[in-house]
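Two quick folds needed for the group meeting slides. Do the first one here.
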Amino acid sequence: MVKTKWKSITFVLVFFFAALMNSLSADAATVDELKSNWNVTRYYPIYEGSPEWQKHSMEDTLEANNPPYELLFDMSSAELATLLFEYPAMPQMTTYYGEDGGVDYTQFCMFLELKSDIFYELLRREDGMTAILTTYQNSGVDAQWFADEVYDQSDADQRKWYAEVFGSQFIRMYAKVFTEEEAALAKHVIQEKNEIYSKADHASPEYFAISDIENGDSHSNAQVRALFLSQDQIAEREAAFREAAASIPSEEESREEEVIAETSGKSKKPIGFIVSGCIFAAAVLTLGVVWLRRKKRTS
């Protein structure tokens, strides 16, 4: 997969410099406008091939690709997991290298924990890990897909390849915080995936090395199962999420606002009708007075 490795490096370099050059593009939408699009599409507003691709700085792109908190909290874990595996910056995963010269996946996971609200929200949820494991399990990749080298035939298949790498490395790194139920599911997924990878010559162990796991369950009761953020970074993230959650009206408050708006709308109708009636009556009375005065003058 040397070719794939260089593609990922090229992707990041091209993205960085193009985004830098186009960050002040006059026809680019604002971050707020792009985030509001989430409520319509429920999908990333900036991805390769989209109209806004490479028109924004890296920071603005990452922020725009975080859904509004109200929508984020409302999405199911299954929907969030699907979005996670389609994260537009996924090719960045294979561009981090350790001292041994191999890919350092911990750096990308730290990046996700810090910059992707979707991933962080899944780490906060009780069923978030299960949703990620299930999405990886149902990726649709088989040994023939590797044998045919489909991953080098289209951008869509390239993204599918990166998603497959992420799924395998996610298990390898986060198994230590799986619950017993999650660990049991992970072991089942590992068995299925290893059967595929062992039959595929192009499934390089550098990307798809999954062995049996021993879950430590050490963080399963924590508020968030983030492994690569400092306590200060977690505290900052949690404060932002709590503030956002507190600003979102509850269902009861939303219903009250709807009732008030509806009542206000209904009350305006009779008032408007009365005012219109009064104006009409005054106009008729005025015309009548004018007509009587003219009649008296003529008589």
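Then this one, please, same format:
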Amino acid sequence: MERTFMMGWSKATYFRLPITIIVLLPAVIFMIAEVPFIGIPVGGIIAFEVWLYYKVIHSNRYVVSDNELAVRQFWRKTKIYRIDRILKIEYVDLGYDWGRTAPNARFQLAIYFSRDYVKSVMPFRFGPVDRDGFVEALLESNPAIAVDREDRENDYLKK
């Protein structure tokens, strides 16, 4: 069974688009009215950027199926991880909610893979909107995963 989870985003991500539109819209309207051969292409470029921003925010998702965890992002190659190689999952609270890269949600998951599968001691960060549902979907495929549900504040960075 395949389950899909949206990637979480910070508040700043959602505020950035309307603020940009509010700031640029009067200038674009003025340019289209006064100098249409410049204003129309500039308006088209801004409309494309707005569409692209919307597409990036709403197309990123995690897909859990059988023994695979797929991370699908707009204009990026889909990354697939094996669920049977996950050793541990920790809940992480990054403390503040502004100015991070994707997944830039405040509440994330630190997922540790076995060292023979991923050559890293650092966990991978996943930021689904529904953390509990995401963990339950992973546990359905691999019940041997150790889960620490206590929100840690950047503890995994100090290890």
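Slide caption for protein two: The radius of gyration is 20 Å.
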